[in-house]
Every structure is written in C-alpha cells, then in structure tokens.
Design goal:
The protein contains 13 helices and three strands; from the N terminus they run ααααααβββααααααα. It is mainly alpha-helical and 342 residues long.
Length: 342
C-alpha cells in the first residue's frame, strides 16, 4: 500500500508542477511524465543527492542505485496511476477515459498446445531487464551477521534467512504467534491471512537471548522493540537504518529483501520442493520461482575454478598410486625382476 501511495504522490507532484488538475489529466500528460521521469533525478526531500559512484558494488556485485528513476519504478507508477483513475472513473468522477493507456492481457485466450509469440510492451511501459536473484553468499552473510551489534538484530537476520517471511510480516510478530515447541512463527500475509512458518533452531536461540535482554514477552505484545527507551515497536525504516549501518562497515549494499532471496535459494538448493517454497514465500504462482533458476555468479566462478583450476592444486591431491608389479607383469606376460617397480 505504501508503495502505491508513493508512486501516486510522484505523479501528482508532477501534475502540481505543471499546473494540471488531477481530474483533467490526459494521455499526453502521462506521456510527458514518462519523458520527464526518464531523465529527472529522484525526489529525495532533505536528503543529499548521492555523488558519482561505481555502477556496480565491488563487494556484492549488485548495481548501485543512481539518482535517476529505474524503469521498474516508472512502470510501477503507471500501474498505480491507472488503478487510481480507474477507481474514480467507475464512480463517475475524474476523466471519462483513463489517461494511462492499457492493452489486454497478452495471451489471454492462448491455446496451451501452441507456442507463445513475442508481444510488444504496453504503451509507455519501459523495458526492464529480468532481475537476478540477489541471494547473499554464505561467507558474506557470516560477515554481515558478525557486524550486527545486538541479539535483536541477530535474531531478526536468522529468522529472515530461515523462514522466508517478508520484512513487514516478521516485524509484525507478536508473542502469541510464536510456537516454541514446534519452532514455528505466525505471520500475517498479504490479504490478512495468517500462516505458520518454520524457522531454524538457531533463530530461536538468538530470539531467546534477545528475550533475556528485554524481559518477559506477553501475549499480543510486539516482539521486536527499539533498544533505547522509551521502547517502541521496531519499524521498517529503523530496521533499514540497521542494515545501512552494516553496509557502511562492509562497503556493501545488501537489502532486507536480499535475505528473503537467500532463503529461497538455500531452500531450493537444499531439496525443498518448489511448491513448498512457493507456499513459504507466500507467492501466488510457481512462475515467480523461475528467477531462482538462473545461476549466481559466485556459484559459476566456484564451479569453474574447481574444474579448470591450476595444475598445482591437482598435485596437492597426492601422486597417483603405482601399479602392482605382479599385476603389471601378468598383463605384459613377463617375469618381474627383483626390486623392480614397473
């Protein structure tokens, strides 16, 4: 909901700057917004604009966010604006025609026995590259975990990489939604549905250490609180600040959502069936797991070095065992010489 609100606010700010009323927006205005968003800097409020940086982070290998709007951000804004005007159009308010052009769903009546023909993007939509899984390698995760100062942050990280819960779902955890005996946590999924998720024993150990620090946890009380008084429920922005501090220490740009990707790849590589991983992640379709079928760069490099490594590494495995002289003489049909090894 917050993402849609911010996308709508982004478009309305453009309308206010161009002195265009919200109920008089046309397709031309939306097209001008797209052209502006492709070359304008992000609105950061009182924050300082980021200076020139490398396009890729050297520690994580991920793209570094720039001051420009990403294609996915522009596409998300168009979707939010379309739904906004569609809501008012059904009520009889606003423009009679939705200013955001939209086409029918591609392959809406497709015959499953036929192949899929490539289709064009919808009008004004930007070309967005297929995202790669942003899982954190084990060594990098261990370094990140060691930089966390409190048992609370360590418990949160352990739950994120072992349960697959979203950031907001885990932050909304209360005392009555923890099953210590079966090592389960209850989260509220999108749409308000409750679901029990298994977590690792290590996560519950760190949770217990955190509870020893903060005191007894009552039913219905939020589990995650701020460390300083007055103790308040931990918010998403506060947890992002924790991750930002760790990133500054490591020179990385990991995000909370990367922990969720880490869980998905660990589960799939560990042999968990895809439909169970889909259920744990709370995805509506198995197609969303296709992104995890692409190999990670660190895995490709490790496998390549294992096969095409230097010959010195192979020599360290030990010299090949010599042939037995008796067996060799039998094959060559000759009598072995005393003291001979060949």
């Amino acid at each position: 909901m917050r993402g849609y609100a911010m996308s709508l606010l982004r478009f309305l700010r453009f309308c206010w700057a161009t002195e265009c009323r919200w109920d008089q927006v046309s397709e031309r205005v939306v097209r001008d917004f797209v052209l502006w968003a492709r070359q304008a800097d992000k609105f950061t409020g009182a924050k300082n604009l980021p200076g020139p940086r490398l396009p890729v982070n050297r520690v994580t290998g991920k793209k570094v966010q720039t001051a420009l709007y990403a294609p996915a951000t522009i596409n998300h804004t168009l979707s939010a604006v379309h739904e906004f005007y569609e809501f008012y159009r059904e009520r009889g308010d606003g423009p009679l025609v939705n200013p955001v052009p939209v086409a029918g769903r591609p392959h809406g009546h497709h015959n499953p026995m036929d192949g899929f023909a490539p289709t064009r993007r919808r009008a004004l939509r930007q070309k967005d590259s297929q995202p790669l899984p942003r899982a954190i390698p084990d060594t990098s995760f261990n370094e990140l975990f060691r930089k966390l100062k409190s048992h609370r942050d360590q418990a949160l990280a352990a739950f994120y990489v072992s349960s697959g819960a979203r950031a907001s779902e885990l932050l909304g955890l209360t005392g009555d939604m923890i099953n210590y005996g079966d090592q389960l946590i209850g989260v509220v999924r999108k749409g308000g549905a409750r679901q029990w998720l298994p977590a690792s024993p290590d996560a519950f150990v760190w949770l217990r250490l955190y509870q020893l620090d903060r005191g007894t946890l009552g039913d219905g009380q939020p589990v995650w609180l701020t460390l300083r008084e007055p103790h308040r429920p931990l918010t998403y922005d506060a947890l992002r600040a924790v991750m930002a501090r760790v990133n500054r220490l490591l020179g990385a740009n990991w995000t909370l959502h990367d922990l969720r990707h880490t869980f998905a790849i660990r589960a799939l590589n560990g042999g968990v069936p895809m439909h169970e991983v889909q259920d744990l992640l709370g995805h509506a379709s198995l197609n969303t797991l296709a992104v995890y079928s692409k190999p990670r760069l660190e895995d490709v490099v490790a496998h390549h070095r294992a096969v095409f490594g230097p010959f010195a590494d192979r020599e360290q495995q030990g010299a090949l065992a010599e042939y037995d002289p008796v067996a060799l003489s039998t094959v060559l049909r000759r009598q072995p010489q005393p003291g001979s090894t060949d």
